[in-house]
Design the sequence.
């Protein structure tokens, strides 16, 4: 026969086993249910993206959207506690109806309708209807987080959309026309460039076949400035007299004038004497100032003239007023160089 204490211990152990066994299914059930809920939450679509897709919203900035008016759908509008949402209309709101005025406060200012939740209930929902001259807008209004709230819904008329589409099309057409114009202009420029190159090549060929040159290699120097004659070229009826000016002095050489002429002579009983210089009109290409320790190339372009039997060609280079009053002008003259016959 068992003692009372032993009987009590066995009974207590049996009760513990029964209680523990009955709690296991419940815990497993709760765990399974929790996992299922988590899976459902994971699979739950993003409310903001879903609403944007449904309303066909086009976001212009954070929480602000452009929408086309449609009377055949119910727009989804999410508000937020402590925030006001604005519905901007392209025309005046004639009538506005709200389902539950105890949950939401609605104010109308001609083309603007303001709606704000005035309850602490996070699941507060209602509907809103706005009547305008051309349409009816229906809304399913809810409360949510400020990050996903619709602060401004900017509505436009359907014909405005058509205008936008038309304008976009016209813009694309104009852009394409401009692209074609640019392409045509580039092709035309290439053709013009090619024609210019061919023309220049032909001119060079003509010039090359009709060009004559004479190497002169004459020079004169004065006060560390030197004038060098390089060559004389003939192209058609034009002559080109090429020369250089070297300035080794410390004073800039300022060019007053440079020209080519014909030294004439008159006969005397015992010989001949210089009678003067006939200047040949010419075009000078030379820097106006030759700085110290530098040199410049120059060219004189003029029409061809035949020399008389006793005449001689002459080149003169004249200096402008020297910087120092005590210095005399450094003028140069080279004559008697070769000439085309």
Sequence:
């Amino acid at each position: 026969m068992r003692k009372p204490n032993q009987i009590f211990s066995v009974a207590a152990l049996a009760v513990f086993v029964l209680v523990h066994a009955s709690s296991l299914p419940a815990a497993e059930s709760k765990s399974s249910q929790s996992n299922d809920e988590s899976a459902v939450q994971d699979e739950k679509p993003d409310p903001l993206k879903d609403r944007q897709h449904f309303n066909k919203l086009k976001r212009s900035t954070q929480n602000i959207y452009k929408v086309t008016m449609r009377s055949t759908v119910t727009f989804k509008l999410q508000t937020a506690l402590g925030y006001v949402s604005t519905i901007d209309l392209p025309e005046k709101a004639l009538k506005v109806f709200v389902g539950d005025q105890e949950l939401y406060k609605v104010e109308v200012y001609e083309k603007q309708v303001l709606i704000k939740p005035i309850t602490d209930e996070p699941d507060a929902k209602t509907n809103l209807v706005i009547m305008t001259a051309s349409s009816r807008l229906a809304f399913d209004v809810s409360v949510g987080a400020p990050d996903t709230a619709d602060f401004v819904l900017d509505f436009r008329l359907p014909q405005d959309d058509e205008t936008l589409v038309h304008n976009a099309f016209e813009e694309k057409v104009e852009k394409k026309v401009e692209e074609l114009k640019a392409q045509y202009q580039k092709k035309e420029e290439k053709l013009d460039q090619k024609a210019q190159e061919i023309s220049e090549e032909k001119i060079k060929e003509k010039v090359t076949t009709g060009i004559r040159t004479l190497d002169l290699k004459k020079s004169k120097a004065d006060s560390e400035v030197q004038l060098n004659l390089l060559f004389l070229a003939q192209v058609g009826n034009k002559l080109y007299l090429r020369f250089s000016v070297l300035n080794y002095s410390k004073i800039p050489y300022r060019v007053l004038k440079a020209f080519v002429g014909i030294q004439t002579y008159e006969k005397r009983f015992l010989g001949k004497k210089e009678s003067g210089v006939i200047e040949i009109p010419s075009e000078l290409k030379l820097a106006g100032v030759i700085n110290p320790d530098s040199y410049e190339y120059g060219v004189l372009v003029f029409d061809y003239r035949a020399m008389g039997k006793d005449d001689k060609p002459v080149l003169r280079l004249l200096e402008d007023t020297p910087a120092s009053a005590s210095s005399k002008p450094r003028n140069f003259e080279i004559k008697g160089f070769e000439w085309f016959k």
About this structure: Residues 1-5, 7-34 have pLDDT under 50 and may be disordered. The CA atoms of residues 26 and 32 lie 10 Å apart. The first strand starts at residue 58 and ends at 61.
